[in-house]
Amino acid sequence: MKDFYHVKVVINNGNVNQTTTLSISGEKLNDSAVNSAYDSDQYRRFQRRKVKAKRRGTVKMSEARGSNSFRDELASLLGDAGIRYAAADPIGIPTAADYGGGESPEQSESLKDQVKGFVMAWGEILLDLGRGCKDIVQQSFLTEDSYIVRKLEKPCAKASAKLRYLNEFLPEDRDPAHAWPVIIFVFILALTALSITTEHNTLVRQVKRVQMHPPSASHVLLPDGRRLAYQEQGVPTKTSRISLIAPHSFLSSRLAGMPGIKISLLEEFGIRLITYDLPGYGESDPHPSRNLNSSALDILCLANAIGIEDKFWVLGHSSGAMHAWAALRYIPDKVAGAAMVAPIINPYEPGMTKEEMKRTWEPWVLRRKTMYFLARRFPKFLISYYRQSFLSGKHDRIDKWLSLSLGKRDEILIEEPTVEQHLQRDVEESIRQGSTRPFIEEAVLQVSKWGFSLADLQVQKKCQQRGILTWLMSFYSEAECELTGFLGQIHIWQGMDDQIIPPSVTDYISRVLPGAYVHKLPNEGHFSYLYFCDECHRQMFTTLFGSPQGPIKKDVVPTQLESKELSSSNVDSPTE
Predict the structure, then answer these.
(1) pLDDT for residue 575 is more than 60
(2) Are 446 and 346 in contact (CB under 8 A)?
């Protein structure tokens, strides 16, 4: 059985004597047992003080650094106890020299160094990750036995053999494997810079928000219950000599008509100008199944509703000419004549030759060609584009919205404040309902089958023959014949610098409609002849209606001779 001893030990700590009682169990009581018991007792005391110090937040730096033994930690709390042990590690107190530069060891690391260390650590992690991914790709896909290498080896070899001659243009001291990636990167960078740089204006344009205006149109109720919005300019119904109905183009409204036309000029010629909103545009109700036949019927119903009893003229500009063509085809008995300014045709018109098709598509930018393709094959894809452009709630240039390339005269024209204000107000009215449906319908109509060809408008003599007896009688008497097609006048004004509707379109029209009167305008663009040009408007009216005669007086009714002279005035040669 082991003995149990209680030993009282007196320790000289400097000038103070400290007394402690040790409990020692063992067979013998010697110096070694006393020292061991002393160490255990002091260690327990140290742990208790350490817990108290942690609670007070005053843990010594030696604890933060970590000590070699518990004696080092004990020395930091008690100081020199006056007892030395031969086998123990000496207790040393670090000085400022040990840290260098006299800087306090408790000074915390700065935020800049912490951020720098964090970034460097993440950089090393990402670098290791990239190396690992590279090794995985090389081992999985770029080995000789991988599926990708086996499939692409032969095509890549053929392409490399064909393009190898390009290496001759490189300097002799350049490795093609390093030179070509640099060249391709610089090429892509240059294309990116060109796409960002605008050729129209290097200054930052002020972005204007789209504004909605109070309704201002007159309305007629159509037989199917829809409302059609329209606007009148010029002389009143009872005193007008000529009624002119103008359907508008794609991104437009009833406010277009003849931009900048003076009321005094309309009164001088006795003209009543009527413009209207296509279904779904402006203030007009949408049509459930719109086509060009229904478009012609809308024009007829509008004319009847506003009291046009005689024949009327139609005016079509750009894509608005599509609806004017439909009026000539489906209601020819009500139309006296047509005035077309840069008229559109179906860009996929089957009657066009390869050369005519090439000259028509060549001036168009790639985006516009893509828009035509999407409208023909995938019209729903246009919804996103329209939402991001003219339906985004912000104004921009008309050529950017419609993917158009403009000539010099048009570039100058659309920068004028008056023209810019008119175009913005016209666009605001066209998108009043905020729906993409009417614009998609209009785009699809342009590239779909119209239901007729322009050649159907050509005047032809059609004789009715009923059986063999009628055929035999035709040798002795003239058979009953009638003229088909559109019998009225068709005048076409085409700017020779028009990049939107190139002159090749008018060349095709004059080929299939040899009776049309084509007026070629040197140096004129798509908008420059019709928009805010008083002299141009007067020339057009003079060509169509002869000398101005003013409105009809209430007590004077025009004679039949005057009506004939008015309809046949100023008919020269088909081409100017």
Answers:
(1) no
(2) yes
